[in-house]
Automatic annotation (TrEMBL):
This is Glucose/galactose MFS transporter. It is found in: Cell inner membrane. Belongs to the major facilitator superfamily. FHS transporter (TC 2.A.1.7) family. The keyword Cell division does not apply. One of its GO terms (biological process) is D-glucose transmembrane transport. Intake of glucose and galactose. GO terms for molecular function: D-glucose transmembrane transporter activity; galactose transmembrane transporter activity. The gene is gluP. Residues 24-414 form the Major facilitator superfamily (MFS) profile domain. Pfam families: MFS_1 (PF07690). Keywords: Cell inner membrane, Cell membrane, Membrane, Sugar transport, Transmembrane, Transmembrane helix, Transport. It comes from Planctobacterium marinum. The keyword Cell inner membrane applies.
């Protein structure tokens, strides 16, 4: 991406730009790690709060509804914020906002107020949304366009590393070896206060380092002048639906894992023990992203997406129709095939958008609201037909993703 670094630049300046890009990419991986950890902590928070407040599955899934609805409400304003202030300031604002959300967990626990937890989660997720809107396109722009999917997959691998660590750390600190219903609501204070401190430190760090801003000079001027709309691109619109269904399916599965695995007909274990198996679900995504980043050098991204979605479908059919360890490991293994889906759908959807890339990125981040809607709908299903049968909903989501990998990804504009 020539952008700010071409046009009469000397060789040493080009080398300097390359080094700056590499350093920025390394720094950005810390953001992918931290928001992966925060997001997967919800999978531990849900059964904990469900037990403490004696919630139904539908009520418990309001945790994900409030968290992921922030993507729907904040993505567009976040895109405008970043277009105006640049990636670096946007990242700092996102980190500070997320830290504030973590701190509100303290009065929420002291007052034993579920509604306040939900508000804290919304604020926390608003900060994460700003980070997502800034970091995802920034990674795709920092390098050759043809390697954008592999590059985003590699950074997303650190997102999966954080997501893998989240259930382990959260399980130890929140459950502490006890059942969710017996645990004190105060046990959320230490992990979320620690997260707040980490986010503030990261905010100070990103305020001081140099990030090559490929968005705000001549690129931003072009965006202001053009009348091009990203909504005209069919593959983007279909990709947005793909992001909606993928995030919804992944979040929904993760949200039910502790309760599902601890069921006497599935894993027959305590919730504290089941929390460790949630780490396998996210750990599978971690392994898969490293593998995917390598395989994509030889196989087209859309073909890998189609294959992975079909495997997820088969695994969910297995977990719905069996019991015991087979059902348990089948749903856990879905994580392995989830691995490359988000970055692959994202990269395919913004391909060939040109000056509409920034708007397209905002639309895709908007579609992450699937993480709010699908788990809530599965919660309604779980309350009516049981947790095991409710997995038919994420199964349908993967059917759509397989369609996108086979046909929907092809770049084309809508008919005028």
């Amino acid at each position: 991406m020539a952008g700010n670094f071409s046009g009469g630049a000397a060789t040493n300046q080009s080398n300097g730009a390359h080094i700056n890009n590499q350093f920025a990419l390394i720094s950005l991986t810390s953001l992918f790690f931290i928001w992966g950890l925060i997001t997967s902590l919800n999978d531990i928070l849900i059964p904990h709060l469900k037990g403490v407040f004696e919630l139904s599955y539908t009520q418990a899934m309001l945790v994900q509804f409030c968290f992921f609805s922030a993507y729907f409400l904040i993505s567009i304003p976040a895109g405008k914020l970043i277009q105006k202030s640049g990636y670096q300031k946007g990242i700092v604002i996102g980190l500070v906002t997320a830290a504030l959300g973590c701190l509100i967990f303290i009065p929420s626990a002291k007052l034993t107020a579920y509604w306040m937890f939900l508000g804290a989660l919304f604020i926390l997720a608003s900060g994460i949304t700003i980070l997502q809107v800034a970091a995802n396109p920034l990674v795709t722009l920092m390098g050759k366009p043809e390697t954008a999917s592999a590059r985003l997959n590699m950074t997303q691998a650190f997102n999966s590393l954080g997501a893998t660590a989240g259930p382990i750390v959260g399980g130890m600190l929140i459950f502490g070896g006890s059942h969710g219903a017996e645990a004190s609501v105060d046990k959320v204070i230490l992990p979320y206060f620690t997260l707040a401190l980490i986010l503030v430190v990261l905010g100070l760090y990103f305020k001081r380092i140099h990030i090559p801003d490929t968005h705000t000079t001549e690129a931003s001027e072009d965006v202001v002048e053009t009348t091009e709309s990203a909504w005209k691109y069919k593959h983007l619109v279909l990709g947005a639906i793909g992001i909606f269904t993928y995030v919804g399916a992944e979040v929904s599965i993760g949200s039910f894992l502790v309760n599902y695995i601890s069921d006497e007909n599935i894993g027959a274990m305590t919730q504290g023990e089941a929390a460790n198996y949630v780490a396998y679900f996210w750990g599978g995504a971690l392994i898969g992203r490293f593998i995917g980043a390598l395989i994509m050098n030889y196989i087209k991204a859309n073909k890998i997406l189609a294959f992975n979605s079909v495997m997820a479908i088969l695994l969910l059919i297995t977990t719905i129709t069996t019991s015991g360890k087979i059902a348990m490991w089948s749903v856990i293994l879905v994580g392995l095939f989830n691995s490359i889906m988000f970055p692959t759908i994202f990269s395919l959807a913004i391909k060939n958008l040109g000056k509409a890339t920034s708007q397209g990125s905002g639309i895709l981040c908007l579609a992450i609201v699937g993480g709010a809607i699908i788990p809530l709908l599965q919660g309604v299903l779980a309350d009516s037909i049981g947790v095991q049968l409710s997995f038919i909903l994420p199964l349908v989501c993967y059917v759509y993703i397989s369609f996108y990998g086979v046909a929907g990804f092809k770049p084309q504009k809508m008919a005028q």
